[in-house]
Backbone:
């Protein structure tokens, strides 16, 4: 199989705080992971590509200093939303690459008050 | 840039009905095309894919054919079941699905009634 988990599944935080979201490939190693963001009734939008042992590649318009990505091992990538604000409230989804297929995590719902 | 357009939902059908979910795309070159499905409370799962023109992807009774002349990749199933109720996403990428991120449509919520 190819299972990807995310933690937490749901988080509520105060404006100005930082939140870390973990993405793990449970039964395979992934040199490449992806982070997506989904607004209500909208598409999943690719935020960044995370490569193990190197810097993430961010899509145009995504602030790399606000959305910090670390891919320190072959099974874990983290997304840290720094100094979160209400407009950062969204559904964040990761995927991990195995061969030519991306396997998705269940997503993390972030609510910033 | 690349984009994917799907028919708006929700789509409500009776069990054993024929299903079509339309998907068209705008992209340069020859992208690979995908259908992902998201069941309630679960992550997106790859349903089927096609990597070149005229290829047909199929899985679990679902089919979609890569039509370059109409830039389409419509999803079809001959007889739907209640268990097919989910959100379906059409997507594309330029690398075969692995190295590059995916561009998704907005998703179509399918509801199958007994």
Residues:
């Amino acid at each position: 199989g190819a299972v990807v988990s995310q933690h937490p599944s749901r988080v509520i935080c105060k404006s100005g705080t930082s939140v870390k979201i973990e993405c793990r490939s449970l039964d395979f190693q992934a040199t490449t992971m992806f982070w997506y963001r989904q607004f209500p009734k909208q598409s999943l939008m690719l935020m960044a590509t995370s490569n193990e042992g190197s810097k993430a590649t961010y899509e145009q318009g995504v602030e790399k200093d606000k959305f910090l990505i670390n891919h320190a091992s072959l099974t874990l990538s983290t997304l840290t939303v720094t100094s979160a604000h209400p407009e950062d409230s969204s559904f964040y989804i990761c995927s991990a690459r195995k061969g030519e297929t991306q396997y998705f995590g269940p997503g993390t719902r972030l609510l910033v008050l | 840039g690349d984009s994917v357009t799907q028919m708006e939902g929700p789509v409500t059908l009776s069990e054993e009905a024929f299903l079509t979910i339309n998907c068209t795309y705008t992209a340069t070159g020859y992208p690979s095309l995908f259908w992902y499905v998201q069941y309630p409370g679960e992550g997106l799962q790859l349903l089927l894919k096609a990597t070149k023109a005229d290829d047909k992807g199929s899985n679990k009774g679902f089919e979609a054919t890569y039509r370059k002349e109409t830039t389409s990749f419509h999803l079809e199933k001959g007889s739907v079941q209640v268990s097919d109720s989910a959100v379906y996403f059409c997507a594309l990428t330029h690398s075969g699905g692995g190295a590059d991120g995916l561009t998704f449509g907005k998703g179509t919520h399918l509801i199958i009634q007994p």
Summary: Chain B touches chain A through 21 residues (CB under 8 Å). Chain B is about 0% helix and 50% strand. The mean pLDDT of chain B is 92. The CA atoms of residues 35 and 90 of chain B lie 5 Å apart.
